[in-house]
Amino acid sequence: MNKTWNNKAWFMVLPVLLLVAFSAVIPLMTVVNYSVQDTFGNNQFFWNGVGWFSDVLESDRFWQALGRNLLFSGIILAIEIPLGILIALNMPKKGLGVPFCLVLMALPLLIPWNVVGTIWQVFGRVDIGLLGRTLDALGISYNYVNNVFDAWMTLIVMDVWHWTSLVVLLCYAGLVSIPEAYYQAAKIDGASRWAVFRYIQLPKMKRVLLIAFLLRFMDSFMIYTEPFVITGGGPGNSTTFLSIDLVKMAIGQFDLGPAAAMSIIYFLIILLLSWIFYTVMTSSDEQA
Amino acid sequence: MARITLDHIRHAYGEKPKSEADYSLKEVHHEWNDGGAYALLGPSGCGKTTLLNIISGLLQPSEGRILFDGKDVTYLSTQQRNIAQVFQFPVIYDTMTVYDNLAFPLRNRGVAEPEVDRRVREILEMIDLSSWAKKTARGLTADQKQKISLGRGLVRNDVNAILFDEPLTVIDPHMKWVLRSQLKKLHRQFGFTMVYVTHDQTEALTFADKVVVMYDGQIVQIGTPAELFEKPKHTFVGYFIGSPGMNVLPASIDGSSIRIGEQTLDLDYKPQVAVGAKTELGIRPEFISLSRDGMPVSISKVEDIGRQKIVRAEFAGKPIAIVVPEDGEIPADPRVTFDPAAINIYADSWRVGREG
Ligand SMILES: Nc1ncnc2c1ncn2[C@@H]1O[C@H](COP(=O)(O)OP(=O)(O)O)[C@@H](O)[C@H]1O
Ligand SMILES: [Mg+2]
């Protein structure tokens, strides 16, 4: 191959670099800047080293919030991924049912986060909400305002309702890309329903599932708006996730230093976990 | 191992077929003998794959019945019919190893592991992939994938029939020859009924006892290679079998004499052609001789293809092909004679025999 090397081509990348610098790197750097300095007001800052970081890492508050995040993400992934696969497997592949199902699936995804929060906040209210009143009428005691379990249930059911469709749509896209010949061959080979899933459908869905998994993990790990709207972090601190705690710290208490340190730790955790998931899930790909 | 009867099978893919043209299979009524080796030949889109899928049960025919040894299996599943089928486009399970791919049909049927191992190794040997057994099927080349696909069809030796849908298209000629002789050997050994779809006439003619020619959703002729060559039942078979194909010339019949343009030939029988039917004369290029006497032709081109020459000429205003031996001379004032025994008469594209 005879390629011409022209280093001027790098200039083409410049606009993007500038854009990314302004939109991501520079704001991130201000956060880094806050995280290593302290202030007594008057816009005067002095060096604090890793002080804020060790403060955050030594606080119970941080670890408890992190634990809640991990639990929440774990639960919703354990529900949404299998449920999404199951629904995708049962969606029609052709006919009038296809557009109908697709639109139905896409609906929850079109609703803004805070609206979703408000919907469920009202839906679950014991005095006027349909869900709250119904459960009450059925004799089931339910109150997300003062019962920890009910608060968590509400958030989980809401997230499943809001986001399972994303997993469904991604899996469905993977499924419809499988040529008919594979299913025919499986019939000839006498494969069971499970074998068809295990050896034909799952391998084809693997890539989209990885994407679904990462998207749902990152997004649920950063959950903020819905618990803020529904429970405000309560009862007590039971639904105070890292993001909610962070906002309390930064805006409520105006502790910029610890909040900045926490942001960075938060960011690194998401990055690290996503990287781990990605490597684990793609490495089985290569050796298989 | 079974005799397979197709009892007035018709198939349309659409919901409500209105006219004959809506049927992909027009009417197939045929019996495949137990243990027979059949080649199914026909142009693309004539319904070969549809027919195979109906036999294997992947497709339910719109009309008609399928019987295995006289037992109606029309509503039985593919699994219950116990048929192996190798598809036109290779299907492999790419997360499995080559070995597991071949073992898959056996394991699904609960064959004991030592037996699985024995048969898989046999097939691996046959398709020449023994050294790849432990590798995942993903990284394989197209022809290796096709061999695995073929191997999965052959690994079960208790099947009623094996259907091959153009299984060797991307395999190189030498390997093709090897696999074809292996197939023949397996066929003799296990005696399954075998239907082999191909585009390649040499493959069909060397491989099968009986060749089934399909055209436009119908079986137009079933016969030995010699029968297809000498007495094509339909002008399509004449064109399709043989290279170059049969010359088909518009003609008109008057008793036992036949007119083509200005020329008149005498036959030793009286073909019965209905009034108004489109009449044609068919003669293979091999049975036209070129010399100084006979009917005039004008030669337009001579193609030398090794042991023979193909002469393209114009006869009675129509293009014809003539096969001349390599050392045969081409006279300056060329004339042709037709071997009377090799002349076939067609009415509306179907052959009119001496019989009636
Ligand atoms: N799944 C299908 N849906 C609708 N029409 C089809 C389908 N499969 C095949 N056909 C039509 O049926 C006819 C026969 O096809 P096929 O059996 O695949 O032919 P062949 O294998 O001889 O090339 C073609 O006209 C094709 O367009
Ligand atoms: Mg085909």
Automatic annotation (TrEMBL), chain A:
Xref: SUPFAM superfamilies: MetI-like
CDD domains registered for this protein in UniProt: TM_PBP2
Localisation per UniProt entry: Cell membrane
Main location: membrane
Transmembrane regions: 70-89, 96-115, 160-178, 208-225, 256-278
InterPro entries in the record: MetI-like, MetI-like_sf, Sugar_ABC_transporter
Family label: Belongs to the binding-protein-dependent transport system permease family.
Full protein name: ABC transporter permease subunit
Organism: Shinella kummerowiae
TrEMBL record, chain B:
A single cellular component GO annotation: ATP-binding cassette (ABC) transporter complex, substrate-binding subunit-containing
Gene Ontology molecular-function annotations: ABC-type ferric iron transporter activity; ATP binding; ATP hydrolysis activity
Alphabetical UniProt keywords: ATP-binding, Cell membrane, Membrane, Nucleotide-binding, Transport
Its membrane topology: Peripheral membrane protein
Keyword flag Transcription: no
Domain ABC transporter: 4-241
Annotated compartments: Cell inner membrane
Record keyword Membrane present: yes
Membrane spanning residue stretches: none
Family stated for the protein in its record: Belongs to the ABC transporter superfamily.
Name of this chain's protein: ATP-binding cassette domain-containing protein
